[in-house]
Each structure stands twice: as C-alpha cells, then as structure tokens.
Automatic annotation (TrEMBL):
Keywords: Signal. This is DUF3299 domain-containing protein. It comes from Chitinibacter bivalviorum. Gene3D superfamilies: Protein of unknown function (DUF3299) (2.40.50.870). Pfam families: DUF3299 (PF11736). The keyword Signal applies. Residues 1-20 form the signal peptide. The keyword Signal applies.
Length: 218
C-alpha cells in the first residue's frame, strides 16, 4: 500500500513538473501582433535616418491635428513652423505602413499564443470574490490601468478565472499566472469610484496557478 501511495505521489509530482516546464514565459508585447519585416526595416536605419523618420511621423501627426481642426496654424510653435515645411515625401510609404501596423497592433490578438499554456506577470484587478479570496480578476500590464490611467487595448488585458481563489492584499497586487491562454472577446465590468464601466478584453484564461510575483534574481 505504501509503495502504491509513493508511486501515485511521484506520478503526480512528475505530471506537475512536466506541466510547469511546458508553460512558456511570455511578455505582454507578445500578446500583440508583430511585424518582423517592418521592425527589420527600421532596425537597419542609422541614428540620423531614425531621427528623420521620427520627424516625418511628427509632421504627419501635426497635419492631422490641423486637418481635424484641433490646431490652427496661428498656434504653431517655432518648431512646428519649421517641421511643417520639411520634405518627407520619400518616407510616406513607410509611414503609411507604420500607421497601418499600429492600428493592427492595438486591435488584433496574437493567434500564435491561442490555446498555449503560458506564464505571464501582471497586476491583479479583482472582478469577483468569494469571501476574501479573488476568484475572477483582470490581469493588466500597468499598475492603475482602467482606474487611474486609461484602459490598455483589449490585447493587453486577460480575464482570469481562478475558482481556487487568491488571497489578495493590495489593489493591483503583482502576480504571476500560469494556464492556457485563449482568444476570447468579452467585457469586464469594473466598479469604479464614479460608477461601473464595461472594459473590452481580448483574452481569457482559466488559471492553473496564481502566485505573488517575485522578481528574477540578478
């Protein structure tokens, strides 16, 4: 009997270790689409070219403000006057590509991680509790997100189910979660000081483990 118990315990530990080993540690940036080609194009530029590209982007933004009526030419600073006269026509195709990717980056999910067991660090924002234990929460990459600062895009938030419950201390407690990540559009109802608000979320997870975050030793 003792041998069977030890065998069962060993098998359980082995299964846990294999599960833990399979969990891929990911960064929040990996939850957003990537463009290796665009990244490589900008990466090959020297510092002078990058500075010129930055000014071209700033010029585009300045023109958009004028076109939308949010800024008048009479309100231009000395730098604005100089910037608006610069010629960046050769960079228009690249800027168009950057703008298109930026819209995609903030709105689409990462299909590569869909259904994958991952490990992710973030800040816990309670949604449901059982006594003093949090059983459902929103995981966000920035402390104060959705309450003190604007909500991140949907692909930077995860609704986490954890029936076992997590003993939360402070609001926005830093945690590490492990479990299968799924692309699932939903809305998290947050109770704020000035009322409730529905926040669009792009990911969901039924967590296998939630633990207090510990910074990696250097």
């Amino acid at each position: 009997m003792f041998a069977k118990i030890m065998l069962a315990i060993s098998a359980s530990c082995l299964a846990f270790n294999l599960w833990a080993a399979e969990a891929k540690a990911v960064k929040w940036s990996e939850l957003q689409p990537d463009s290796p080609t665009l990244r490589a194009t900008v990466g090959k530029m020297n510092q002078q070219e990058k500075t010129r590209l930055m000014r071209a982007v700033q010029q585009r933004e300045l023109k958009n403000l004028v076109d939308s009526g949010k800024l008048k030419p009479s309100e231009f600073t000395a730098n604005d006057v100089k910037l608006i006269k610069e010629d960046f026509k050769d960079l228009n195709p690249l800027i168009n590509e950057i703008e298109a990717f930026e819209k995609k980056r903030t709105s689409e999910m990462s299909t590569a991680l869909n259904g994958q067991t991952i490990q992710l660090d973030g800040y816990l924002l309670p949604l449901k509790q059982n006594g003093k234990k949090v059983t459902e929460f929103l995981l966000v990459p920035v402390i104060g997100a959705c309450i003190h600062v604007p909500a991140p895009p949907p692909n930077q938030m995860v609704v986490v189910q954890y029936p076992k419950g997590y003993d939360q201390g402070d609001l926005f407690a830093p945690v590490t979660i492990t479990g299968k990540l799924n692309i699932k559009a939903s809305k998290a109802n947050l109770a704020l000081a000035d009322g409730a608000s529905d926040v669009p979320v792009g990911y969901a997870m039924s967590a296998d483990e939630v633990r207090a975050y510990k910074a990696a030793a250097k």
